[in-house]
Amino acid sequence: MFMIFGYPVALLFGQLLLGLINGAFYALLSLGLAIIFGMLNIINFAHGALFMVGAFVAWMLQNYLGLDYWWALILSPLIVGAFAVVLEKTVICRLYRIDHLYGLLLTFGLALILEGLFRNEYGSSGLPYRIPQALSGGANLGFMFMPLYRGWVVLVAVVTCLAVWLVIEKTSIGAKLRAATENPGLVQAFGVNVPRMITLTYAAGVALAAFAGVLAAPIYSVNPNMGSNLIIVVFAVVVIGGMGSILGSIVTGFGLGVAEGLTKVFYPQASATVIFVVMVIVLLARPAGLFGKAA
Amino acid sequence: MFEVKGLEAWYGESHVLHGVDFQVGEGEVVTLLGRNGAGKTTTMKSIMGLVPRRRGSIIYKGRETVKMRPDEVAKSGIAICPEERGIFAGLNVTENLMLPPVIGPGGLDLPTIYALFPNLKERAASQGTKLSGGEQQMLAIGRILRTGAKFLLLDEPTEGLAPVIVQQIGRTIRELRTRGFTVLLVEQNFRFAATVADRHYVMEHGRVIDMIPNSEIEAKMDKLHEYLGV
Ligand SMILES: Nc1ncnc2c1ncn2[C@@H]1O[C@H](COP(=O)(O)OP(=O)(O)OP(=O)(O)O)[C@@H](O)[C@H]1O
Ligand SMILES: [Mg+2]
């Protein structure tokens, strides 16, 4: 067996892959949070719960309607996104003129309600969701065994993050979005329907979470707590990357996933806390985060 | 074509406009003059719907706009170049220029805008806020010429700029007039205003207190000095 620094290569790459998988979810979720925060100035504490709802919708589509994974990948973000539109238009839109603290409380409350509803209905032991036929099995890469589905998740997450980044940085819609995060009043005075843009931005960020939820369903069991377990780390990622920074959330998401994976190899005792240690160091050195602009 | 009647506006508790009345005819260049704090900028913002609360009547092309949202006002054909210029730091010059959506026919095309403001073309890829003050002002004016809006609100476009640039902006405003734009211009500098405008309204304490046709500005110079405290 090959060794690097006295560690088996297969173990190293195995943890690296696991880190990339976790990083994929950190990146997708923190990206959605960043978009929402930039436009709405709200930290969406319901994000983890909506990720969980995305996974449950995939499960329901399969078990109640017989629609497979590929349908879920499209339909779940649309369904949960539509729910987000309703949410924004009925409750979240009332928060913009008042203290940020209320946004935090409201979205946190929403998360508790959503998780409670699903726990009531489906219990908390978790429901199985099959890996789609085409992606089951794996490939022997020589130095390690690569489960196909995990490779797929990393690939899809990277492509999705890049696509979102390109839309925001390089298109005219993205330019409107960036302008509206700076000065929404003036953008609206140029004839852009900013309130509608805000609604759609929230929906897009939430749809991204639901999409991540569908990707996660075959890996983790579908259960009401899957979001709240993840979201704590995602908030640390957001803080490290820099609140509201698009590129920051992507790079930091993947980077910290990998850091976490490697820590499992070299110093397993610290793997659960390494991200928070990084957070403390970053906050001390750069309070606005790695990619954040100092206020 | 454009008429403001009994316009009042508030920022929170503070009542800033107390019944502003004036009119602008199609193709005219009209200024609002007045001391600091007279309510000129607030009048411009009230027209666009950018103040928290307003009341009265603002009629543009026969339509009452005082209850419209800012984007609806913009779509009716009014565009603003704000006092603070409003150049976006997160956008480069081209993106800033292309930001306001086209709301109708009759806007200038990019080559024409670049001909009016050659500096903008050279700096196309620069970050918007990295431009000089004068260039930022040109960008702020240039970007509202594309949209097809024919009624332009320019809030102190010459503020703090070098004389050559002030002259360039003066030429631009006269050029816009010949192209059929209507302009409402806020100015502190009435000597500059006299070189571009047809008529002048004088504001004080949130009201319009006088109207002076440009032809009478020489004769009323003493009165103007008194109004503006210069
Ligand atoms: N955002 C605001 N909140 C509260 N009061 C304001 C605000 N903006 C302006 N005011 C007040 O409203 C009044 C009118 O201000 P406005 O900016 O319209 O004056 P102005 O004529 O444009 O002055 P200047 O020539 O200095 O630009 C002033 O007394 C000002 O202090
Ligand atoms: Mg002003």
Q: CATH homologous superfamily of chain B, by name? A: P-loop containing nucleotide triphosphate hydrolases
> What is the average of the pLDDT values of chain A?
91
Number of helices, counting only DSSP H or I runs of 4 residues or more of chain B: 9
Number of extended strands of chain A: 4
Strand content of chain B: 25-35%
Radius of gyration of chain B: 17 Å
CATH class of chain B: Alpha Beta
Unreliable spans of chain B? none
The separation of the N and C termini of chain B measures 33 Å
Largest interface: A-B, 19 and 25 residues
Description:
The complex is a heterodimer of chains A (about 300) and B (about 230). Chain A has helices at about 10-40, 45-65, 70-90, 100-120, 150-170, 170-180, 185-190, 195-215, 225-240, 245-265, 275-285; strands spanning about 5, 5-10, 140, 145. By secondary structure, chain A is mainly alpha-helical. Chain A has one domain (about 15-120, about 165-285). In chain A, strands 1-2 form a two-stranded antiparallel ribbon. In chain A, strand 3 and strand 4 form a beta hairpin. In chain A, helix 9 packs across helix 10 and helix 9 (about 225-240) packs parallel to helix 11. Chain A is globular, with a radius of gyration of 19 Å. In chain A, about 45% of the residues are buried. With about 230 residues, chain B is of the alpha/beta class. Chain B has a single domain (about 1-230), classed as Rossmann fold (3-Layer(aba) Sandwich), CATH 3.40.50.300. Chain B contains 9 helices and 10 strands. In chain B, the strands form 2 sheets. A 6-stranded mixed beta sheet of chain B has the order 6-7-8-3-9-10, sandwiched between helices. In chain B, strand 4 and strand 5 (about 65) form a beta hairpin. The longest helix of chain B has 16 residues, at about 165-180. Classes of the chains: A mainly alpha (about 300), B alpha/beta (about 230). Chains A and B meet through helix 6 and helix 7 of A and helix 2 of B. The structure holds adenosine-5'-triphosphate and magnesium ion (MG). Magnesium ion binds near residues 40, 41 and 83 of chain B.
